[in-house]
Amino acid sequence: MNNHDTRRPTDAELRILATLWELGPSTVRQVHEALAPQLGDGPGSGQTTTLKHMQIMVEKGLLSRDSTRRPQIYTPTRPQDQTQDQLLRHLLDRAFSGSAGSLVLQALSSQPTTADEAQAIRQLLDRLESQRPGDLGEDE
Fold it and tell me: What is the DSSP string of 40-73?
């Protein structure tokens, strides 16, 4: 497993990252309390489990920990958009043979879009088309 793979968050780690992106720098308790409604009362839902995940995330370089304070404060090491970009590139390479068009077509056909999302997609396509005339939808 290379460093790129070890930094890719698991599903549980993504939930923690999403919580930290929403809350900002936080303690384990704050993260755990925010996640509690998603975790339920089943096995593996205790605060010590959240702590263990966050310790592993520090080792993987996904979180930083301010050990000078008590309780310790955890912060994502990368912004949300960078992590999403990394995950998207991985998905694109593995599931769509690197074809962004195939990924977008699959995503748009599998989930309904709102009017605002459709408008944003149209604006992006218009911008891409104006930047690269001849590249989108034209036969050679």
Answer: TTSTT-SHHHHHHHHHHHHHHTSEEEETTSSS-E
Can you tell me which residue has the tokens 């975790």? 39
Question: Where in 5-133 does DSSP place strands (E)?
Answer: 63-66, 73-76
Q: In whole angstroms, give the CA distance from residue 6 to residue 8.
A: 6
pLDDT tens-place string over residues 33-76: 999 887 765 555 688 999 999 999 999 999 999 999 999 999 99
Percentages (nearest 5) of helix, strand, coil residues in the chain: 60, 5, 30
Query: Among residues 50, 41, 65, 61, which one has the least CA distance to residue 12?
Result: 50
φ/ψ region of 128 (left if φ > 0, alpha if ψ in -120 to 50, else beta) reads alpha
Rounded Cα–Cα distance for residues 16 and 30 (Å)? 11
Query: What is the pTM for the complete model shown?
Result: 0.74
